[in-house]
Amino acid sequence: MTSRRETPARRRAAIAGLGLTELGKVYGPSARQFAAQAVRRAAGDAGIGLSDIDGLLVSAGTTPGVDLSLQVDLGLRDLRLFTQMQAFGSTAGAMVQYAAMAVEAGMADTVACVFADAPLRQGKATGAAYGGRRTTPAGWGSLLGSSGFAGPNSFYALAARRHMKTYGTTSEQLGAIAVAQRAWAAKNPLAQLRDPITLADHQASRFIAEPFHLLDCCLVSNGGAAVIVTSAERAASLAQPAVQVLGWGQAHPGNSFRRNDNFGLVSGAAQSGPAAMEMAGVTVEDIDVAEIYDCYTFTALLTLEDYGFCGKGEGGEFVATPGMLGPDGKLAVNTGGGQLSSYYLWGMTPLSEAIIQARGQGGERQVPKHDTVLVSGNGGILDHHSTLVLGAEG
């Protein structure tokens, strides 16, 4: 398969810097302060000055302050590209896509993409972080609310239950994902949760919204992450191994939650994944590492199906196959522990680990073969999806 892109190799986009703040239950800094710190660290990681940045893409989480004022905080002047983006968990991948297109079109030379959030409050329950007051919905949305559907837990649980009813997927199969990712997290010094768990632990953890146990659900974290996107030619002369941006794709299904909708059975990964792989000139068989958005175990399972790692409806059996997932498994999935066990920075979680793996800097968790890395981002209630295919320097 040949790439669709005709861009000269020297102008093709590459990721040259990665900046991570302290992550997890980190109190004190605001989301805006985390964002500024992440950009500074990404620039330092790349070996460039802030004055070298001529493009800035900003994405906020649930807390205010991460907005266009970040330019002033960082002292950036005469930006050629600057905007705030929001497609929830798919935004990080989309930011890299737009940054790559800008670099390849000559709109900007060095673009910083940043996300930060600080939903955790000292002395308040973690579960309250996303439980803020919401506007009462009208119309169809009010019917859902009166039926008890409020917030992502219940909607994702509904999606998972539909998959279970249609294909026979089981809670134990979802648990296999949680167990495997915790095994990866045990090797990641950045991970919030590193103690091993068993399938019995998963099954014994309390229900959040059936069929989801606590260990099916992602963490909540404070912190920020940023990446620097520039041309491959320039990246080759900077401080870190360049990570090539080989392909990308987006999909926004527009779920209606009405009759005949395929909600819970197919995600935007089914469109964005093939598009990104076609652009990169690879197939799913060429993927060495898959960093999959895992706000819930079910999201990871559905995405693996839709990317073609297994057949539709076969995800449960696939992930539960002995020797498939985990540090010694056949398929390297969420090698840092993912959002379930490592840290939750929306789409920056899979993206940051993908960069670490592609650079060969994963330490104890480093995957030996890491030439081609697939990154997924999922936003809303399976409403938005972004896919990146990254390549190691070579």
TrEMBL record:
Keywords: Acyltransferase, Transferase. It is an enzyme of class 2 (transferase). The keyword Transport does not apply. Its EC number is 2.3.1.-. The keyword Secreted does not apply. One of its GO terms (molecular function) is acyltransferase activity. CDD domains: SCP-x_thiolase. Pfam families: Thiolase_C_1. It comes from the Bacteria. InterPro entries: Thiolase, Thiolase-like, Thiolase_C_2. This is Thiolase family protein. Residues 249-391 form the Thiolase C-terminal domain.
